[in-house]
Design brief:
Elements: E1 5-6, E2 11-14, H1 15-18, H2 21-35, E3 43-48, H3 54-67, E4 71-77, H4 80-90, E5 93-97, E6 106-112, H5 121-134, E7 146-147, H6 151-162, E8 172-178, H7 183-192, E9 196-202, H8 216-226, E10 233-237, E11 244-247, H9 256-267, E12 271-275, H10 281-284, E13 290-293, H11 297-309, E14 315-318, E15 324-326, E16 330-332, E17 335-337, E18 340-344, H12 346-359, H13 363-368, E19 374-380, H14 385-395, H15 398-404, E20 411-415, E21 420-424, E22 428-434, E23 441-447, H16 450-469
Parallel strand pairs: 3-4, 3-5, 4-7, 8-9, 8-10, 12-13, 12-14
Antiparallel strand pairs: 1-2, 2-6, 5-6, 10-11, 14-15, 15-18, 16-17, 19-23, 20-21, 21-22, 22-23
Protein name: Phosphomannomutase
Keywords: Isomerase, Magnesium, Metal-binding, Phosphoprotein
Domain Alpha-D-phosphohexomutase C-terminal: 414-456
Amino acid sequence: MSSLKFGTSGLRGLVTDLEGGPSFAYAAAFLAAIGTEAGARREVVVGRDLRDSSAGIAATVAAAAAAAGVTAIDCGALPTPALALEARRRGACAVMVTGSHIPEDRNGLKFYRPGGDEITKADEAAILAALGAAGDAPPPPAVPAAPEPDAIARYRRRSLDAFGPDLLAGRTVAVYQQSSVARDLLADVLASCGARAVPIGRSDTFVPIDTEAHRPQDVAFIRDVMASGRFDALVTTDGDADRPLVADADGRILRGDVLGLITARYLGADAVVVPVTAGSAIERTGFPRVLRTRVGSPFVIAGMEQARREGATVVCGFEANGGFLLGSDVAIGGRILPALPTRDAMLPILATLAAAQAQGLSLADLVAALDAGQTASDRLGDVAAERSGALLGRLRDAAFRRDFLRPVGSPQAVDEQDGVRIVLDGERTIHFRASGNAPELRCYAEAKSEREAEDLVRWGLAAAAAAMDGTAGPGGAA
């Protein structure tokens, strides 16, 4: 069976399952179902990350466009939000070839509707229907796409037009370049905003940086770099630069939802949309409206659209991985930052550093002032959807949930829109959900201390495994 499937953001799977005919077929299905809608401009902008497989897959996407009578515009290697911005400028649709943070033996396609909006879950269903109707015709020979070298420059200008040249004066920032497609751009933008940007850790091979589930070697590398005392912060992104990573002067990595919270406050948001995996400090911060959704940027985008319909004027969203979505134009010190309702890494990096600069605080002190609590997460691998689904179904039953959680606390409230998120006594939460990208059961916890959150996750995974294996006794203990 093919590994290709739609997850929380686009299509992903093994490179061997995507190269050639499959990437042609999915691109053709997208163009047939979405990209050539009545009135749509018959153009598709194509971008890619720095994986070895991405250039060839991008060429296949261009061939699919040519076969559909659609002009392909080659934007080269650039951040996903830069490609979305170019699609908005042109009124064109877009395809980004990227596997984001997953290992190099995998890759994917992210699709954008005409005008640069991410596709919806309904659009995914339409693409799959068109894919089934198309059959398995082999792809035609590659067709060169028209080049567009200025898309990344326009994305750069968007940030610099909104953030002043002296914004970060006096700050020294390590830019961990690795294999991020934004590695040179990020250093350039920070320097243009007044920081001393020092590139480090450039890699010629792909590094799968996950901004939410940090690899031990990445954590150790960041701590070693920051132990020198030379830097006020370290910044980087995942492979396609739609998710940020920021560490403070002591090498502590800031949570993605904390970056989003700081950015939303800096922008003066009156409506914030977040998935259920984001920390509960968001509700305590005083935003006029907070809306929680299922995990995945399509759901966050739908929530932002709802907030705008209900009268919000400064609308944003963010995910626990740090990707920030701006749903409306916003003024920053008299400068206008245009809306870009897709995940972006550049904005939360700049806004977080700018917030610390404006308050005269270190990043550590800025975060401490939020009193955002601590979170932890982990997963059980190789858990079939049927097994995780059965457990989640049992957790939706109040009596089972109460007995299952008895060793760790008393349930106070429950959110069932994506898995089962349970508020416990003592200002704690535990959340179980099936991964949208892999056969995994994930557990998230929130508590006042890091150790308590980690202990809660460890207990949750052990209790879940025992319950799925049918060996759990009273209170979820094996």
